[in-house]
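for the recovery benchmark. tokens below, seq after
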């Protein structure tokens, strides 16, 4: 599963040919959650409450890029890196 972004110790990944709805996986210090790209809500898992607003803001800022990477992943194409919230 390719890493598409890292920021503040958070690792963001998208699986190739993953199930709908479009989403990404976030990891932080052993905690993992799946976030919907559409609205940045947690679909599954648990994540530190203090970092959820950071993920939400980042997702909304990079929604088009995330959806582009999602489409690339569905086609088994190389994914593009997305700048982090700390850059």
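predicted aa per position
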């Amino acid at each position: 599963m390719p890493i598409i972004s890292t920021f503040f110790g958070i690792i963001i990944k998208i699986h190739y040919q993953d199930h709908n709805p479009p989403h990404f996986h976030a990891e932080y210090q052993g905690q993992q959650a799946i976030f919907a790209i559409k609205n940045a809500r947690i679909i599954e898992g648990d994540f530190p409450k203090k970092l959820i607003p950071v993920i939400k803001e980042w997702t909304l800022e990079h929604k088009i890029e995330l959806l582009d990477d999602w489409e690339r992943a569905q086609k088994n194409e190389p994914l593009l890196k997305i700048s982090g919230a700390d850059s």
